[in-house]
From TrEMBL:
Enzyme superclass (EC): isomerase
Family matches, as Pfam families: MM_CoA_mutase (PF01642)
Protein name per its UniProtKB record: methylmalonyl-CoA mutase
EC numbers on record: 5.4.99.2
Length: 602
């Protein structure tokens, strides 16, 4: 039965109206039971989560959480999408990355769901002279090509344009990007940007290849250096503005210049932040176009890439789940093209299975989940709209500081941007070290006996500029030490978990301690006696009540049996014989590093 609004049946009529003050009171009551005395807005603050860039996620959003009008899809400020139809006609562009000259892999991808190619060329990729070989058998009028050639962008672009001409591809049929990104190359290598080839390349695209974009604003360099979402956005807008200046000073109109740019952003497993980031990016670029006097030219072309920072070497199968969430967020956020990195990306060159899973991720989301059938499905969510606005504000502030200091090239040259990104990464590293930001399969629920996944090494990437970081790098170093010890001695470093009392008293902390030590490659031993375990260190695991009764005696006994270091799983106390404490929120990396050092694991 369908009840229409004018049928006279109001299902909520018998219930009293609720208001925010009542909700605050209910929240305060619940928090009071856990020992927190708060009231009013302080109750809401107690349930809020701090994000980077000074943002906070609150537990409740209502119609009072106003955000600027996002407009309509395809119209300024383009928050809801660069095109009125969004991706409803055929889904987003499934763009697969290729960094080696493997024509078979390219054709296999295109025959099985991939709709465009992202070719890394030049240093760290496909030799420019081999582009024709790699694209042999590819219908270049049907499959767009996005080049990424770093400092060799001019020669790579000329080679691709030569292939178009050689194969009789009409200029109006060519689609994709030539990938010129002098400032991105400066960020990656520290080399001074060369803008000389950019203008003639952009002018040729504008006149002969209207479907090609000459420049790419690649924000991955700032994301991979540890930058926050606002820093990634701010740096990308500063780069885009620098390119607009170069092109318009050379005689191109603002409309022509905007049409030459494509923006590349990272998509992470933080679903809502990724959605908001892509929406905020469009708002920011629309504002730039508006200030330049061409509001209709501000529709940003977006290429979203699954974040390399979150891809792990250990338990790489979990990367499939991370990539799925990131791809979903990129699609919901309105990206025009999406690249799903294979789950073994951090290990080297992906194999055929990993590439198949990567391309099928988008296929399932588009064809089976019908995710693209609704334009801007997150639009109207009070949380998403508010987060989009707050992130755009934070990014605009960061962009203005870059402009104040001379622009993108200047802050790269001076090292100011490197310092900003390093500061952000240092703060995030603390969260990773304390497991406030968990990495499943690495810092949480590690699989110590997993069989290593081995891949052929990927080409060496350009270096000399901003660093490339990964979330798992601190734990990866610890696991590598454990692996070396295993190879040298035939066994891993061990810690004995001394459970005190019945299972109900110790299971929670035994499980906690086992996960903690395995994150550093240390094998927990729970069976038998301490003397038979082969361990030199021990961790007491039980309830607070039993610790009061038996912790000191247990520590003394274990020390007498040869234990060199006694941990206690729980909040720090004053127990004689206990050397250190491990607990939720402790610096796991510091604890594990010190433990391996004491064990002589180099």
């Amino acid at each position: 039965m369908t009840v229409l609004p004018d049928d006279g049946l109001s299902l909520a009529a018998e219930f009293p109206d609720a208001n925010l003050e009542q909700w605050h009171g209910l929240v305060a009551g619940v928090l009071r039971k856990s020992g927190k005395e708060v009231s009013g807005t302080a109750a809401e603050d107690a349930l809020s989560t701090a994000l980077e860039d000074g943002l906070r996620t609150r537990p409740l959003y209502t119609a009072h959480d106003a955000a600027p009008d996002p407009g309509f899809p395809g119209f300024a400020p383009f928050v809801r999408g660069a095109r009125a139809e969004g991706n409803t006609t055929g889904g987003w562009d499934v763009r697969q990355r290729h960094a080696v000259a493997d024509n078979t892999a390219v054709l296999t991808d295109l025959e099985n769901g991939v709709t465009s190619l992202w070719l890394v060329a030049g240093e760290g990729g496909v030799p420019v002279a081999s582009l024709g070989k790699v694209l042999d058998g590819v219908y270049l009028d049907l499959a767009p090509v996005a080049l990424d050639a770093g400092g060799q962008f001019a020669s790579a672009a000329q080679e691709l344009l030569r292939l178009y001409d050689e194969r009789g591809i009409d200029g109006t049929a060519a689609r994709g990007s030539l990938g010129a990104d002098p400032l991105g190359h400066q960020a990656r290598t520290g080399e001074a940007p060369d803008f000389a080839p950019v203008v003639p390349l952009a002018r040729r695209c504008a006149e002969e290849y209207p479907g090609l974009r000459a420049l790419t604003v690649d924000a991955l360099a700032y994301h991979e250096a540890g930058g926050s979402a606002a820093q990634e956005l701010g740096a990308s807008i500063a780069t885009g503005v620098a390119y607009l200046r170069e092109l318009t000073e050379a005689g191109l109109s603002v409309e022509q210049a905007c049409a030459q740019l494509e923006f590349r952003y990272a998509a992470t497993a933080d679903q809502f932040l990724t959605i908001a980031k892509l929406r905020a990016a469009r708002r920011l670029w629309a504002r730039v176009a508006e200030v330049c006097g061409a509001p209709g030219a501000g529709a940003q072309a977006q290429h979203a890439v699954v974040s390399p920072v979150m891809m792990t070497r250990r338990d790489p199968w979990v990367n499939m789940l991370r990539a799925t969430i990131a791809t979903l967020a990129a699609g919901v956020g309105g990206a025009d093209a999406v690249t799903v990195l294979p789950f073994d990306h951090a290990l080297g060159l992906p194999d055929a299975f990993a590439r198949r899973i990567a391309r099928n991720t988008s296929t399932i989301l588009v064809e089976e989940s019908h995710l693209s059938r609704v334009t801007d499905p997150a639009g109207g969510s009070w949380y998403v709209e508010r987060l989009t606005d707050e992130l755009a504000e934070a990014a605009w502030r960061f962009f203005r500081t870059i402009e104040r200091d001379g622009g993108q090239a200047a802050v790269l040259r001076s090292g100011r941007l490197r310092t900003d990104l390093a500061t952000t990464w240092a703060q995030r590293s603390k969260k990773l070290a304390t497991r406030r930001e968990p990495v499943t399969g690495v810092s949480e629920f590690p699989f110590l006996s997993e069989k290593p996944v081995v891949r052929d090494p990927a080409p060496e990437q350009p270096a000399g500029g901003l660093p490339r970081v990964r979330r798992d790098e601190a734990y990866e170093e610890l696991r590598a030490r454990s692996d070396a010890h295993l190879a040298a001695t035939g066994s891993r470093p061990r810690v004995y978990l001394a459970a005190i009392g019945p299972a109900a008293a110790h299971t929670a902390r035994t499980t906690f301690a086992a996960n903690l030590f395995q994150a550093g490659g240390i094998e927990p031993v729970t069976e038998g006696t301490f003397e038979a375990s082969g361990a030199t260190e021990v961790c007491l695991c039980s309830s607070d009540a039993l610790y009061e009764e038996r912790a000191e005696d247990a520590a003394g006994t274990l020390k007498a049996e040869g234990a060199r270091h006694v941990f206690l799983a729980g909040r720090p106390g004053q127990y004689s014989g206990v050397d250190s404490y491990v607990f939720a929120g402790c610096d796991a990396v510091a604890v594990l590093t010190a433990t391996l050092d004491r064990m002589g694991v180099s």
